[in-house]
């Protein structure tokens, strides 16, 4: 049996009990057991994580999908691997994950890996107790402005945590201009696109990081993948995209059903559409190659990756194909709309907008989303719901969509009924975080989703 002090022992035992109660009766509660554990022992994370090599995935968009992809690759390789797959990515949720998997009897397995999605502002709390093998940063976009502020503030929050652990290897998105020239002690590897024929060279007016982080002159681009990501350079001071260690060499196919692309002269396929999911797969590939996992295994795992928990999750509701897509900021929303635009068949769209704490109280960001792109699609019905449904209705009307096609849903049950009554067989549901969570809970209560978490 592992030797731990009495305070840590009671912290683990009681939080394990609370975790079991939460899962049995509340069908969730992935943060609360961690809060209980921390009340008994504020340093409990150091105790329960000591047998693991840890990988931290942070950044604005793509954390959950990248973490899931990486977890599945490592699991297929045969590692004893754990992850916070419920998306509880703050300190209490991370503690809950380790508590759930803690064994008082010493485990002889030396290949224990923890792959953790971590909220940007919580990296510093995690690295106080854990020194990860890898910290990866996916990207930096405006998100929850009332909580994070602008992208530069988000970066500083993450770097506070990185500075706690100077020996951790950083695997960074090299197409993200904010992540170059960081002046850190850590070893750094970069991933990104070496080629992208679908991209533009002119940055959008509402892109997030348009000016050089060194001299503040506007960036120029050889290509843009989306928002401000791409092959950037500053012709004023010479700052430019770093050399990539892991790169997309070409896009073979980009459809509404999935994407094929070339890495390291090998072709990979993922059953998730959108450029942003190619980034997620490339990030998972980069982490895996750090651990010397072979390309064939990575490719096999990625090709079987399920979309779940609101990330292009596909459900069958009364014979209709319902795609749930989490949207939380302009960059991600625009990528979702680009992905939907790849589908040329008839469809209906549902929009769910909430303004709870986890969504961000400030919803002004919806005015930076390019909803006008939807005007070229074959849309039969437009369903609108959530706490701020009228704000969303006004935004869509201003974008040129026909308000006579709008169906407003005051409750999630109304939204479900409107989906069932749609004349089209395919519906895309674009929902902010708490709207997605609550709508999924409602679908679970009606039997349309078997596994809630």
Automatic annotation (TrEMBL):
Domain annotation Lipid II isoglutaminyl synthase (glutamine-hydrolyzing) subunit MurT C-terminal: ranges: 326-436
Enzyme Commission identifier(s): 6.3.5.13
Domain of life per record: Bacteria
GO molecular function: ligase activity
Keywords: ATP-binding, Cell shape, Cell wall biogenesis/degradation, Ligase, Metal-binding, Nucleotide-binding, Peptidoglycan synthesis, Zinc
Domain Mur ligase central: 57-236
Residues annotated for Zn(2+) binding in this entry: 212, 215, 234, 237
Record pathway: Cell wall biogenesis; peptidoglycan biosynthesis
Catalytic activity: beta-D-GlcNAc-(1->4)-Mur2Ac(oyl-L-Ala-gamma-D-Glu-L-Lys-D-Ala-D-Ala)-di-trans,octa-cis-undecaprenyl diphosphate + L-glutamine + ATP + H2O = beta-D-GlcNAc-(1->4)-Mur2Ac(oyl-L-Ala-D-isoglutaminyl-L-Lys-D-Ala-D-Ala)-di-trans,octa-cis-undecaprenyl diphosphate + L-glutamate + ADP + phosphate + H(+); beta-D-GlcNAc-(1->4)-Mur2Ac(oyl-L-Ala-gamma-D-Glu-L-Lys-D-Ala-D-Ala)-di-trans,octa-cis-undecaprenyl diphosphate + ATP = beta-D-GlcNAc-(1->4)-Mur2Ac(oyl-L-Ala-gamma-D-O-P-Glu-L-Lys-D-Ala-D-Ala)-di-trans,octa-cis-undecaprenyl diphosphate + ADP; beta-D-GlcNAc-(1->4)-Mur2Ac(oyl-L-Ala-gamma-D-O-P-Glu-L-Lys-D-Ala-D-Ala)-di-trans,octa-cis-undecaprenyl diphosphate + NH4(+) = beta-D-GlcNAc-(1->4)-Mur2Ac(oyl-L-Ala-D-isoglutaminyl-L-Lys-D-Ala-D-Ala)-di-trans,octa-cis-undecaprenyl diphosphate + phosphate + H(+)
The protein's assembly and partners: Forms a heterodimer with GatD.
HAMAP family with a match to the protein in the record: Lipid_II_synth_MurT (MF_02214)
Family to which the UniProt record says this protein belongs: Belongs to the MurCDEF family. MurT subfamily.
Function of the molecule: The lipid II isoglutaminyl synthase complex catalyzes the formation of alpha-D-isoglutamine in the cell wall lipid II stem peptide. The MurT subunit catalyzes the ATP-dependent amidation of D-glutamate residue of lipid II, converting it to an isoglutamine residue.
Protein name, UniProt field: Lipid II isoglutaminyl synthase (glutamine-hydrolyzing) subunit MurT
Taxonomic source organism: Clostridium simiarum
Name of encoding gene: murT
């Amino acid at each position: 049996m592992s030797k731990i002090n009495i305070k840590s022992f009671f912290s683990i035992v009681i939080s394990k009990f609370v975790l079991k109660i939460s899962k049995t009766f509340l069908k969730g509660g992935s943060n609360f057991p961690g809060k209980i554990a921390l009340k008994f022992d504020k340093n409990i994370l150091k105790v329960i994580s000591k047998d693991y090599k840890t990988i931290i995935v942070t950044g604005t968009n793509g954390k959950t999908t990248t973490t899931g992809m990486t977890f599945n690759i490592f699991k297929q390789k045969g590692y004893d691997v754990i992850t916070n797959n419920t998306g509880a990515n703050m300190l209490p949720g991370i503690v809950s994950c380790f508590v759930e998997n803690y064994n008082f009897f010493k485990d002889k397995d030396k290949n224990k890996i923890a792959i953790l999605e971590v909220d940007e502002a919580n990296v510093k709390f995690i690295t106080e107790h854990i020194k990860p093998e890898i910290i990866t940063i996916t990207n930096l976009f405006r998100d929850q402005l009332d909580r994070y502020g602008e992208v530069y503030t988000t970066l500083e929050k993450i770097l506070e945590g990185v500075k706690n652990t100077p020996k951790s290897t950083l695997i960074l998105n090299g197409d993200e201009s904010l992540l170059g020239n960081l002046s850190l002690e850590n070893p750094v590897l970069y991933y990104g696109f070496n080629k992208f024929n679908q991209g533009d060279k002119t940055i959008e007016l509402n892109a997030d990081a348009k000016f050089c982080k060194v001299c503040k002159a506007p960036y120029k681009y050889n290509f843009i993948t989306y928002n401000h990501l791409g092959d950037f350079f500053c012709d004023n001071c010479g700052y430019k995209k770093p050399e990539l260690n892991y790169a997309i060499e070409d896009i073979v196919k980009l459809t509404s059903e999935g994407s094929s692309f070339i890495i390291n002269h090998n072709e990979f396929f993922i059953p998730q559409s959108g450029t942003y999911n190619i980034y997620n797969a490339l990030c998972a590939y980069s982490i895996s190659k750090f651990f010397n996992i072979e390309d064939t295994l990575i490719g096999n795992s990625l090709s079987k990756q399920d979309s779940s928990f609101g990330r292009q999750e596909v459900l069958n509701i009364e014979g209709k194909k319902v795609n749930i897509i989490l949207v939380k900021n302009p960059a991600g929303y625009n990528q979702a709309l680009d992905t939907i635009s790849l589908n040329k068949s008839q469809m209906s769209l549902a929009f769910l907008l909430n303004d709870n704490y986890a969504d961000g109280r400030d919803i002004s960001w919806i005015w930076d989303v390019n909803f006008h792109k939807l005007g070229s699609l074959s849309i039969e019905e437009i369903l609108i719901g959530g706490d701020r449904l009228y704000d969303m209705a006004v935004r869509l009307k201003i974008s040129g969509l026909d308000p006579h096609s709008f169906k407003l849903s005051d409750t999630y049950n109304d939204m479900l009924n409107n989906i069932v009554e749609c004349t089209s067989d395919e519906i895309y549901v674009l929902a902010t975080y708490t709207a997605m969570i609550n709508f999924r809970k409602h679908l679970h209560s009606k039997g349309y989703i078997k596994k809630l978490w």
